[in-house]
Structure to design on (136 residues):
């Protein structure tokens, strides 16, 4: 099973919250966590290099994997999950852009089939409970 979230490492608030919730849900799964691979896919590949992603995801959970690719690959992945993202007109600081993006956590089966999703703000306990229901 895959637990998939799209975001970017420079995200000030939304992504850290979602990734923390994913990490807490993984911990709440106990032994069942071994059946789930949490994945973070960047929507900001120009800044989120593999070198930047690796320590970022490790900071949330040891099993969280960060994925990036070229612009076309990221766009294709986001489209497949119906994830919207775009460079924001608001700048965090001069030259430091923000990204607008969908904040949804997807649970996919071992065969790549969609199982369920979690909207932003779901508690880790609820997420872990619903993941466990889908594991067997
Ligand atoms: Ni974000």
């Amino acid at each position: 099973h895959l637990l998939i979230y799209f975001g970017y490492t420079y995200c000030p608030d939304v992504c850290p919250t979602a990734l923390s919730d994913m990490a807490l849900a993984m911990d709440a799964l106990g032994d069942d966590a071994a059946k789930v691979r949490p994945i973070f896919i960047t929507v900001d590949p120009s800044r989120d290099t593999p070198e930047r992603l690796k320590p970022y995801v490790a900071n949330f959970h040891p099993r969280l994997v960060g994925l990036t690719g070229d612009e076309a690959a990221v766009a294709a992945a986001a489209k497949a999950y119906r994830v919207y993202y775009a460079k924001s007109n608001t700048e965090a600081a001069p030259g430091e852009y923000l990204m607008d993006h969908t904040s949804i956590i997807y649970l996919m089966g071992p065969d790549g089939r969609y199982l369920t999703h979690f909207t932003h703000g779901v508690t880790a306990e609820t997420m872990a409970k619903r993941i466990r229901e889908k594991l067997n």
